[in-house]
């Protein structure tokens, strides 16, 4: 359960811990449709299984999201990536990084893991082509040293998908 | 409702609540200014947040802790505790803060003290509407799913439509009602799946009607359970909030937990429904566990009560989930502003939070309730629900007076037990 980014991360603040516990409890009662939280004892890293919605390009396909929470969650956004293999999508890089504004600049502490999941599923569902982003290779090469997507200066150009 | 400024000024706030309680390590907080704002009732006092929901506490949607009162955003009226609010303006930031809930730029809050009864009522109504919308969505999903299945069935059996016609002919010529599918088990599904056509002989009509009714009932029962779970959790919290001072035990009547009427004057459409479900459960219980449905109902009510605390959270958080999902991904151009807590912005951008609650919600759900109501009697018709079956395995009605009395007593004992036990489960 460790990676370079996990080791450099500080433990959760008290407030982050409390909130995540409540989010998890709420999730267990009322999980977002199409998502399954993989049970671990690690509150700071959630692995979530996503099932592609029916009637979309990803119908029935299974993917895994990894959500890492920073010390100051929810004031700071969690890091959300797809574990390999990441779905082919114009906004998802082959290293699992997701180009989605709410994960970065547009994050708000009023959002929750559950609402992130819904946004990601909605992004998947609205895709019309199974295709990597045009700059996939360049971007992935730049990230080879294990850079977090949160360090990327994202440029959100497409508000359709 | 807005509160009289003169009367409100210099409200008594304990000194210790005029500074942060250490929820965050605040940087750049002007403690003097904060103290003044709290004493002037422009910001909520820094009460220490409670972990558990209790009487008359409000949950801050950022830290998930409970407080006696919260600040409200001017743009969308969402609550926020003072310490979370202080975190909203990033230190050294040159740009005005966006509302964390509705993304309106130049976020500002105001403090109106504890919520009034009207405000609480309004909030609950809004919560209800969101839940109702969710139920409608779920129903739509179920319906779509069913239609898809139906289509699949139709496609797979289209080659056998001829067979269906044969069955029809047979039905007409023999004019025997007892024929049904039993004798033609292999063609049974054909009859069912081709029900879309309208020119049907009476006997087939009958078959289809039964089939439809059963399907409807399955669907409705699931909805009833979902709705009931949601309602109970809301109502339970409501009763915690409003009723705890007097009697803390929720009223139990006729073996069912009667939710208190919501603060709005409208009666809850599901009040009757809950009773109907309970009555139905009772009936089911008489029949013991022969019928698979009786398990479902008992389980459902058990779940209701176990999950009720979290159910409330759900009720609380749905509105903002909606907003987040719909929050536009285009970024607004932000302009420079060094406001003092951005307190004095007159710009009132209305109700992002309520835009989903269509006013037709209530009537739509009421209609659903009606349709489930009409589904109920069907089950009663089913012979296995007849009380006579409890007394003996045969439906003979005793002839002598004594026997009849015995039967009546046995019946009432059974009923009394049935009343006790389904509720032993949830309330334990």
From TrEMBL, chain A:
Gene Ontology molecular function: any one: ATP binding
Gene3D superfamilies in the cross-refs: Ubiquitin Conjugating Enzyme
EC numbers on record: 2.3.2.23
EC supergroup of this enzyme: transferase
Pfam families membership: UQ_con
SMART domains reported in the protein's UniProt record: UBCc
UBC core domain sequence ranges: 15-161
InterPro entries linked: Ub_conjugating_enzyme (IPR050113), UBC (IPR000608), UBQ-conjugating_enzyme/RWD (IPR016135)
UniProtKB keywords: ATP-binding, Nucleotide-binding, Transferase, Ubl conjugation pathway
Key word Nucleotide-binding present: yes
Annotated function: Accepts the ubiquitin from the E1 complex and catalyzes its covalent attachment to other proteins.
Stated name of the protein: E2 ubiquitin-conjugating enzyme
Species annotation: Acorus calamus
Top-level taxonomy: Eukaryota, Viridiplantae, Streptophyta, Embryophyta, Tracheophyta
From TrEMBL, chain B:
Domain of life: Eukaryota
InterPro entries cross-referenced by the UniProt entry: Sip5/DA2
A Gene Ontology cellular-component term: cytoplasm
Protein name: RING-type domain-containing protein
């Amino acid at each position: 359960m460790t990676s370079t980014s996990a080791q450099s991360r500080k433990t959760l603040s008290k407030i982050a811990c409390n909130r995540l516990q409540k989010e998890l409890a709420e999730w267990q009662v009322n999980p977002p449709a199409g998502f399954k939280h993989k049970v671990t004892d690690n509150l700071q890293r959630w692995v979530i299984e996503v099932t592609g919605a029916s009637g979309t390009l990803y119908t029935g396909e299974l993917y895994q999201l990894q959500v890492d929470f920073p010390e100051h969650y929810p004031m700071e956004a969690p890091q959300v990536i797809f574990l390999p293999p990441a779905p082919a999508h114009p906004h998802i890089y082959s290293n699992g990084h997701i180009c989605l504004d709410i994960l970065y600049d547009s994050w708000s502490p009023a959002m929750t893991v559950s609402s992130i999941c819904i946004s990601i599923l909605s992004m998947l569902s609205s895709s019309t082509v199974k295709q990597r982003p045009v700059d996939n290779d360049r971007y992935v090469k730049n990230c080879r040293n294990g850079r977090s997507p949160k360090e990327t200066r994202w440029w959100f150009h497409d508000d359709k998908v | 409702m807005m509160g009289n400024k003169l009367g409100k000024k210099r409200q008594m706030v304990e000194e210790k609540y005029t500074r942060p309680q250490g929820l965050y390590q605040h940087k750049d907080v002007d403690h003097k200014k904060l103290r003044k704002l709290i004493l002037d009732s422009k910001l909520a006092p820094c009460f220490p947040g409670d972990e558990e929901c209790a009487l008359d506490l409000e949950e801050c949607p950022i830290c998930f802790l409970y407080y006696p009162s919260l600040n409200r955003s001017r743009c969308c009226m969402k609550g926020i505790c003072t310490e979370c609010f202080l975190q909203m303006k990033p230190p050294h930031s040159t740009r005005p803060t966006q509302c964390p809930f509705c993304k309106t730029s130049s976020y500002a809050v105001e403090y109106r003290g504890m919520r009034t009864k009207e405000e609480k009522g309004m909030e609950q109504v809004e919560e209800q509407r969101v839940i109702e919308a969710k139920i409608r969505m779920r129903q739509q999903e179920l319906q779509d799913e069913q239609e898809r299945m139906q289509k699949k069935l139709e496609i797979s059996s289209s080659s056998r439509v001829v067979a269906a016609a044969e069955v029809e002919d047979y039905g007409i010529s023999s004019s025997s009602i007892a024929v049904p599918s039993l004798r033609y088990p292999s063609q049974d599904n054909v009859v069912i799946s081709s029900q879309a056509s309208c020119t049907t002989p009476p006997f087939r009509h009958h078959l289809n009607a039964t089939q439809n009714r059963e399907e409807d009932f399955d669907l409705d029962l699931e909805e009833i359970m979902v709705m009931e779970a949601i309602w109970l959790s809301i109502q339970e919290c409501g009763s915690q909030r409003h009723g705890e001072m007097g009697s803390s035990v929720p009223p139990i009547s006729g073996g069912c937990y009667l939710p208190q009427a919501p603060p709005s004057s409208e009666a809850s459409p599901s009040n009757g429904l809950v009773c109907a479900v309970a009555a139905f459960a009772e009936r089911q219980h008489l029949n013991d566990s022969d019928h698979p449905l009786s398990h479902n109902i008992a389980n459902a009510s058990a779940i209701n009560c176990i999950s009720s605390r979290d159910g409330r959270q759900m009720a609380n958080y749905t509105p903002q989930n909606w907003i987040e999902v719909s929050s536009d991904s285009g970024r607004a151009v932000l302009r420079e502003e060094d406001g003092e807590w951005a307190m004095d912005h007159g710009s009132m951008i209305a109700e992002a939070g309520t835009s989903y609650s269509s006013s037709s919600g209530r009537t739509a759900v009421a209609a659903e309730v009606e349709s489930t109501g009409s589904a109920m009697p069907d089950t009663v018709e089913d012979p296995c629900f007849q009380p006579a079956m409890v007394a003996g395995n045969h439906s003979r009605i005793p002839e002598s007076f004594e026997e009849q009395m015995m039967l009546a007593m046995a019946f009432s004992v059974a009923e009394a037990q049935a009343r006790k036990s389904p509720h032993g489960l949830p309330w334990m």
